[in-house]
Design goal:
It is a single chain. This protein has one helix and five strands. With about 70 residues, the protein is an alpha+beta fold. It has one domain. The strands form two sheets. A three-stranded antiparallel β-sheet has the order 2-3-5. The protein is globular, with a radius of gyration of 11 Å. It starts with a strand and ends with a strand.
Protein backbone atom coordinates (compact mmCIF):
# COMPACT_ATOMS: atom_id res chain seq x y z
CA UNK A 1 0.00 0.00 0.00
CA UNK A 2 0.91 3.65 0.00
CA UNK A 3 1.99 5.14 3.31
CA UNK A 4 4.24 7.84 4.67
CA UNK A 5 7.90 8.12 3.71
CA UNK A 6 10.07 9.98 6.18
CA UNK A 7 13.22 11.25 4.51
CA UNK A 8 16.10 12.30 6.71
CA UNK A 9 19.01 14.62 6.00
CA UNK A 10 20.75 13.58 2.77
CA UNK A 11 19.29 10.10 2.96
CA UNK A 12 17.94 8.23 -0.03
CA UNK A 13 14.57 6.55 -0.13
CA UNK A 14 13.32 4.36 -2.94
CA UNK A 15 9.55 4.37 -3.03
CA UNK A 16 7.33 2.16 -5.16
CA UNK A 17 3.71 2.87 -5.95
CA UNK A 18 0.96 0.41 -6.78
CA UNK A 19 1.96 0.48 -10.47
CA UNK A 20 5.52 -0.61 -9.65
CA UNK A 21 6.95 2.78 -10.61
CA UNK A 22 9.81 3.82 -8.37
CA UNK A 23 11.03 7.17 -7.15
CA UNK A 24 14.42 7.81 -5.62
CA UNK A 25 14.35 10.90 -3.47
CA UNK A 26 17.30 12.69 -1.91
CA UNK A 27 16.51 15.10 0.88
CA UNK A 28 18.73 17.52 2.71
CA UNK A 29 16.20 18.54 5.32
CA UNK A 30 13.82 16.28 7.19
CA UNK A 31 10.68 16.13 5.07
CA UNK A 32 7.63 13.95 5.53
CA UNK A 33 5.43 13.23 2.52
CA UNK A 34 1.98 11.83 3.11
CA UNK A 35 -0.89 12.21 0.67
CA UNK A 36 -3.62 9.97 -0.70
CA UNK A 37 -3.05 11.51 -4.13
CA UNK A 38 0.49 10.16 -4.35
CA UNK A 39 2.39 9.94 -6.59
CA UNK A 40 1.00 12.77 -8.73
CA UNK A 41 0.92 15.28 -5.89
CA UNK A 42 4.38 14.23 -4.77
CA UNK A 43 5.85 14.84 -8.19
CA UNK A 44 4.45 18.36 -8.30
CA UNK A 45 5.66 19.20 -4.80
CA UNK A 46 9.06 17.68 -5.44
CA UNK A 47 9.49 19.67 -8.64
CA UNK A 48 8.55 22.86 -6.79
CA UNK A 49 11.17 22.11 -4.18
CA UNK A 50 13.86 21.29 -6.72
CA UNK A 51 13.22 24.28 -8.95
CA UNK A 52 12.90 26.73 -6.06
CA UNK A 53 16.68 26.84 -5.67
CA UNK A 54 19.46 27.53 -8.13
CA UNK A 55 21.38 24.43 -7.11
CA UNK A 56 20.58 21.06 -5.61
CA UNK A 57 22.06 22.19 -2.31
CA UNK A 58 19.61 25.06 -2.15
CA UNK A 59 16.72 22.73 -2.88
CA UNK A 60 14.93 20.51 -0.43
CA UNK A 61 14.74 17.41 -2.55
CA UNK A 62 16.25 16.00 -5.70
CA UNK A 63 14.03 13.46 -7.37
CA UNK A 64 14.87 10.95 -10.07
CA UNK A 65 12.26 8.71 -11.67
CA UNK A 66 12.65 5.08 -12.64
CA UNK A 67 10.17 2.81 -14.39
Amino acid sequence: GIGTAELLKWKRASIHDQNKKSWTIWCMDKVVFSTPEWPRNWKAKAFEMVTSGNTTHKSYCNVSYGY
